Structure formats: C-alpha cells, structure tokens
Amino acid sequence: MSLIYNIGRLVGIQPEGVLRLEGPAQGQTGVLENAWLRIKDGRIADYGKMADLVGHDETDAVMPDSDRASIDARGGMVLPGFCDSHTHVVYAGSRDGEFLDKINGLSYEEIAARGGGILNSARHLQQISEEELYNQSISRVREMMAKGTVAMEIKSGYGLSPKAELKILRVIRRIAENVPAAVRSTYLGAHAVGPGYTHEEYVQMVIDLIPEAAELADFVDVFCDEGFFTVEDTDRILTAAKGKLIPKIHANELAVSGGVQVGVKHNALSVDHLERTTDAEIDALKGTETMPTMLPGSSFFLGLPYGRAKDYIKAGLGVALASDYNPGSSPSGDMRFVMAQGCIKMRLTPVEAFNAVTLNSAYAMGLSREYGSITVGKKAALILTEPGWDLTKLAYQYQTPFIREIIL
Ligand code: NIG
Ligand code: FE
C-alpha cells in the first residue's frame, strides 16, 4: 500500500467501464484538486480530496517519515501515463542517410522507390543478430518510458521474410517480458514486398505465416496504401487472419486508399494514419468499434497534411493519437509532443488531445480496461509532474521538462 498526497491536480478520472471517449465526451475529463491517491498491489485503490484524508484512519500515512511508501506530490499533477498504440520501435540501425535525401527534396515514395525506406531498414535488420536487435530496440522502449509512456504497441514489418518477421516478433515478446510497461504485439508482414518475391508471392507468404505469427502477436496490420498493398490484398490477409489476430490497419497515409473501409469491414480495432481522408471515411467509421488513430509525428516529419481530428469528433467519433515511432516517418516516441501537435496542428483542446494519448489510445490496442485513466482497479501507471503543471501548460509549453516521477 502506498499513498500519493498533496496532489495539486489529479487528472484523467473516469468511471469504471468507460473504454473510449467519443464526440463531446472526448472533450471532458474528471479533475480533482488537492487530492490524494492510494495504490495497492500495483493498482489504483482509492482517491479523494486532501480535506477528507485528514482524520482518516490512515492519517499518519500523510507523514512522509512514518510511511516510506508515501510520496508528497508537493502540488504536482498526477495523470495516467501515456498509451502509444502504434509504433515500429523494433528496427535496426538508422535511416539518417535518407534524412539528407529528404532535406534535399525527395518524397517518402521517391526514397522508397530507390530501394531506400522500409527495404533499407530490412537490410540492416538481416545483418544483425536477434540479441543485437533486442539491445537496440529496448533502448528506444526505455526512452519512451522515460518520457511517460506506460503502454505501447510494437509492430513487426522490417523483416520481409518469414525468418526475419518471426525474429522481430520474438524480440517484441522479450521486450514485453522485460519492461514494466504493457506491450502489445502486431504482425505487420505486409509492410513492403520483400526482396526476391513477386507481389503475389509475397502476399501469399504473409498469409502462410499467419498461424506462426499468431503464436507471438495480438494483432495483424497491413500497409494498405498506394504503392504498397491494395484493398484486395488487405481483404485476403484479414480474411486469413480472422479468429487468430485482430486487425489494426495502416490506411490513408499516402492516398485515399480504401483502407478505412476494408478495416471496418473486418471489425478492425483501429485504422491508423488517416492523413488523407474524405467524409466517406468519417461516415464509414460511425457506429463501429474501430478507433480512428492519427499520427501527427509522421505529418510533421514527412510534411503531410494533419488528420482531420476535429471533424471526426464533431461527427461523434473518438480519436486516438500515437507516435508511429519508426526510422522512416517519425523518429520520435515522445507522446507529450504528440499531444502538443494534436493541439497546435489539429486544433484539439488540451483535454481532447490528452484523452487521445491516454484512454483512446489504450482502447486502440485493447488495453483500456487496465490503462488510460484514473479509475479504481486500473493499473497504477502514472505520471507525477513537478509543481504547477496542468493539461494546458503540458501542450503549450511543450518542450519544458515536466516529469518528476513515473509510477509504474
Ligand atoms: O507508419 N507507413 C508505413 N510504415 C511506417 C513507416 C515505415 C518506414 O518508413 O520505415 C509508418 O509511417
Ligand atoms: Fe506506422
């Protein structure tokens, strides 16, 4: 049992059973000022106002010296840790060489067409051992955790052969076993056509590998976009994965791809990217279980349009935001920066952006029963800030260090 007391603002309070926030609800969150929160067995046991704690049975827990497990928050904010539902952090080497090509004006598609991009990362990955891949990747996971991420999804997709895809999925599993953050795993065999295969042969390989991948992964993903995989490929892969892996789809990054509609058809948990969407995509998502997920870090890094998050919310939908941490389109896993971009570039209110990087992103990886809000019974996966912070300042003063302690 431990107690956090003198909390200036306890933010992100939700009643039990709220698994995602849609429409006007995305703009609301529970806040308690001058609060305490008690943790038992790694879970949120209880919380309340400081005024009510005085005179309580365990009042002496308020004295830091009498109970070493208690933390004086000194007026800092306590919020649920960030949930990052879309990353590619298991990769090898770097693509800093392509950074110069990009600066000199080549587009993502042009770099890929020259054999750069995902194929470049796949070459790096073939050359290193599983041990080395684990070491490189876990350092990024630790970096994400230091920035406040407590739950994350990680995709395969830089293997592009059965052997190398399974190598990545094993590395993700090993990461999951070795960090206190929650880790969900996604089989993204269909990320690019592997060398030595025709398009058709490669799609067949991706399908044939599903049973083995399903032993290691929770989800299946397809890069359903212009120049990569078609709606028909996606439909075939998702049909083959039915009952084994839940879909989460890369859609509408490079073009209006049809990826949203095929994702919805297969009851995808999320459709991600959505830099390019028309009203048809918004309509297709209404009344579904699928969480639209936007990745402002890719818009920033590649110079793409930002997703129409505001229009989705106006239409009654919820929106999640994630980092897309990967070497080609978003070399950052900083969810506070993602939240700030949600406000600055997508015109979300700080509360809307906060819900997008916590509860809705937890939903988008099937973790919102355990993570993403201050709710009795959920994991105590929390950020304690320095004194004087609130959600608006978090997004506004987006480069100033704010974390005092991560409780995980
Ligand atoms: O989400 N769009 C596809 N996959 C990644 C980028 C992969 C890469 O370039 O390495 C993304 O942006
Ligand atoms: Fe991605």
How would you explain this protein's 3D organization?
The structure is a single chain. Helices cover 36% and strands 22% of the residues. With 408 residues, it is α/β, with parallel strands linked by helices. It folds into 2 domains: 2-81 and 372-407, Urease, subunit C, domain 1, CATH 2.30.40; 82-363, TIM Barrel (Alpha-Beta Barrel), CATH 3.20.20.140. An 8-stranded parallel beta sheet has the order 6-7-8-9-10-11-12-13. A hairpin with a 2-residue loop joins strand 2 and strand 3 (43-49). The longest helix is centred in the middle third of the chain and has 17 residues, at 130-146. It is globular, with a radius of gyration of 21 Å. Residues 63-67 have low confidence and may be disordered. The structure holds N-(iminomethyl)-L-glutamic acid and fe (iii) ion. Residues 86, 88, 250, 324, 326 line the site of fe (iii) ion (FE).
Q: Which helices and strands appear, and what pairs or packs with what?
A:
Elements: E1 2-13, E2 30-40, E3 43-49, H1 50-53, E4 71-72, E5 76-80, E6 82-84, H2 96-103, H3 108-113, H4 118-127, H5 130-146, E7 149-155, H6 162-178, E8 182-190, H7 199-208, H8 210-216, E9 219-224, H9 231-241, E10 246-251, H10 259-265, E11 270-273, H11 279-285, E12 291-294, H12 296-302, H13 309-314, E13 320-321, H14 335-344, H15 350-357, H16 359-363, E14 382-387, H17 391-396, E15 403-407
N-(iminomethyl)-L-glutamic acid (NIG) is lined by residues 88, 117-118, 121, 223, 250, 253, 298, 324, 326-329.
